[in-house]
Amino acid sequence: MKVFSGIRPSGQLHIGNYLGAMRQWIKLQEIHDCIFCIVDLHAITTPYDPGELQKNITDAAIIYLAAGLDPEKSIFFVQSNIEEHSELAWLLGTIIPVGDLLRMTQYKEKSQELRKSPKAGLLNYPILMAADILLYQAELVPVGKDQQQHVELAREIARKFNRKFGKTFEMPEVFLPKMGAKIMSLQNPRKKMAKSEGKESYIALLDSSKTIKEKIMKAVTDPGKEIKYDLQRKPGISNLLTIYSLFSEKSLKEIEKEFKGKGYEDFKKSLAQLLIEKLEPFKTKQKELSKKEEYLEKILDGGAKKAKVLAQSTMKEVSQKMGLI
Ligand code: TYM
Fold first, then answer.
1. Is 178 a catalytic residue?
2. Model confidence over 166-196: pLDDT tens digits?
3. Which of 18, 59, 107, 147 to mutate to test the pocket of ligand 1 (most atoms within 8 A of CB)?
4. What angle do CA 208, 212, 213 make, to 5 degrees?
């Protein structure tokens, strides 16, 4: 199967990104044809520092590789290097009603967060995402829960296009992890873990051991003292248990048993220790790769060359069907 997914180069990537998405990619690349993309054109739809963007792209690429992305097995590139993404997005924009974009949860949330008037790019964000997916005829799109609605919209766009111009696009399916599709903020377990929620609310993959410990010890918990998974009554502990389970590869039941009779503090200390251990290899690899600029460039250039061939083929078909050539 063809798999496509992307990640914004928006500074530090966190364990939500890792558990919700990157971890799946690493597994999927073993069995499918995978295309992974650093979506810089998406990253500029909210306020950003142009002077930082190239560094953020490099950092994101390094983290992908440190997490286990294998450029021999997957195609890996930067979105803006393939202009067909923007071109297809423009064309798809002609068949999607504005109303469908206005009802997107992420648009509503982000436009509210931004006090200044939201830009058209933010509204059109899901069209570009649909273009990313459809350009490569992807059948499977591994993402976290927050991107599910956008993948569904991509399906809707594919359906509309195929109906109007004849079968052109594959129907992409969303691929959510069974557990970890929505890791919550450490400071507010009713909201998803996101960079925009503030530094204390997420663990970055490159956080120092000291920072990891501090953030976990300060994580918001719930009334009572039992270590028990109960999303309704104990959203804080349930989120921490989910993180523990995914990093330790132990079931929730096993962990509950292990911490029976122990308090939140003991549990948090163990979780901090576990994260420190599991994130250590990222840091080591990241340091190694940071010194290999040329190697990194070669991987991304090579990826873009392979992606270009696929993108051009779809664009040609789309342009023909739409009467542009
Ligand atoms: P982005 O960069 O916000 O996030 C990258 C991936 O991480 C997942 N994620 C989470 N998963 C679980 N818990 C969380 N708290 C959490 N926070 C983030 C996201 O769901 C995502 O899978 N629009 C996309 C990038 C994109 C894309 C695409 C994805 C652009 N084009 C095409 C798939 C296909 C985004 O901004 O993700």
1. no
2. 999 999 999 999 999 999 999 999 999 998 8
3. 147
4. 120
